[in-house]
Design goal:
Layout: E1 6-12, E2 15-24, H1 32-37, E3 43-54, H2 56-66, E4 70-74, H3 78-90, H4 103-141, H5 148-158, H6 163-186, H7 194-232, H8 235-241, H9 246-284, H10 289-299, H11 302-328, H12 334-365
Parallel strand pairs: 2-3, 3-4
Antiparallel strand pairs: 1-2
């Protein structure tokens, strides 16, 4: 049974002693706070030896009494001392508004944070690539572990289902290139060179680049969302528990399907872009299809096709790796799935454009103009 909290004052030498008794708990303090307000001495000796129990509220009353005074607490057991220390640590001023950071420092801090995050992501992607190579080596050493059904299913998701949107986009881009090129070349009386512009830009750059961007937004995001949802549902951990490698079961089929299908999708996009440009040239510039095709064969070198076929698997590898890597990083709650999916698309497109710039410089340096 609890006893009411109380205290009495006495004089101990040159100090005023406050001797607490009873239970310093929220249910027993009653009017004790008001009575403590009347204690005005600066030098106090607080004795807790006769206190049987104390909770956080009681510790706060004792702390408030001794705060800012030349006070000494005696008679507290180990439990009371821990409570008093925690209450004293929590008694800190809280800022309603944070300190104002100069704009320059804030911008530099954001740039530094973004740079550090980019470095960590790059290191993570390199490590993920190493794990992917190890998984590929294990599958080569043990061919029965290769999941044919999973790869063919991803063929359908990455390739067949993407034919419509990739084809429509490429066809319209070819029309736009032809129209804009014709408008500019008409000023010099060189409309016939619109064929050169459409053919070389479609085969060399825009066909594979636009395809890569579309695949990153469509398949890369799907990879991140699928694997991220499985990660939240603890299905990935369950696979590890039963001895199935998530890299072999989830990541490798998606990466292989994207790498193998990107050259086909890129070539398909380039052909439809040329078809779109050819239809525009036929209607607007009176260039017959036969003449257009013959001109394409003359002005588009074989090296442009080789450039596209070399870049396509690399772009597919980067896109699929970014999507699967971000999916594997999901943890916490469903909001992380959306954030990682967005990061997969952004990273995939960014890396594709950066690599395309490197490829352009490299192919120019070896004479593939």
């Amino acid at each position: 049974m609890s006893s009411a909290a109380d205290f009495r004052q006495s004089v101990d030498g040159d100090r005023s002693a406050v001797l607490f008794s009873g239970d310093l708990t929220i249910s027993s303090i009653r009017d004790l706070p008001k009575r403590l307000d009347a204690v005005g001495e600066q030098r106090l000796l607080v004795d807790l030896s006769q206190v049987s129990r104390m909770d956080t509220v009681g510790a706060w009353l004792v702390h408030r009494l001794v705060r800012g005074r030349d006070a000494e607490i005696v008679g507290a057991n180990e439990h009371f001392e821990v409570l008093l220390q925690q209450v004293a640590q929590a008694d800190q001023l809280v800022k309603v508004r944070p300190d104002r950071t100069p704009p320059l420092y804030r911008v530099l801090g954001q740039i530094g944070g973004a740079t550090a995050m980019a470095g960590r992501t790059l290191a993570g992607l390199l490590g993920f690539f190493g794990a992917l190579l190890i998984s590929l080596g294990n599958v080569i050493m043990h061919p029965r572990r290769f999941r044919v059904n999973a790869v063919t299913q991803q063929f359908e998701v990455v390739g067949i289902h993407a034919l419509g949107i990739v084809g429509l986009m490429s066809f319209l881009v070819g029309i736009v290139i032809a129209q804009q090129g014709a408008v500019q070349l008409r000023q010099f009386g060189a409309e016939v060179f619109t064929v050169n512009l459409v053919g070389r830009s479609a085969v060399k750059e825009l066909g594979i680049l636009m395809t890569a961007i579309m695949v990153a937004g469509r398949s890369g995001s799907a990879f991140a969302a699928q694997i991220g949802s499985m990660k939240l549902a603890e299905e990935v951990d369950a696979m590890r528990t039963i001895g199935v490698s998530p890299m072999e079961a989830l990541v490798l089929p998606r990466v292989l399907s994207t790498v193998l299908l990107m050259p086909l999708l890129g070539f398909y996009a380039a052909v439809l872009a040329i078809v779109g440009g050819g239809i525009f040239c036929w209607i607007a510039l009176d260039i017959p299809p036969v003449t257009f095709i013959q001109r394409i064969r003359e002005v588009v070198p074989r090296t442009d096709l080789w450039q596209m076929l070399i870049k396509a698997p690399v772009f597919g590898l980067i896109i699929s790796m970014a999507g699967c890597f971000q999916g594997m990083q999901v943890e916490g709650n469903a909001e992380a799935v959306g954030l990682r999916t967005t990061a997969a698309v952004v990273q995939g497109i960014f890396l594709v454009i950066v690599l395309d710039a490197f490829f352009a410089v490299f192919f120019t340096s070896i004479g593939w103009l």
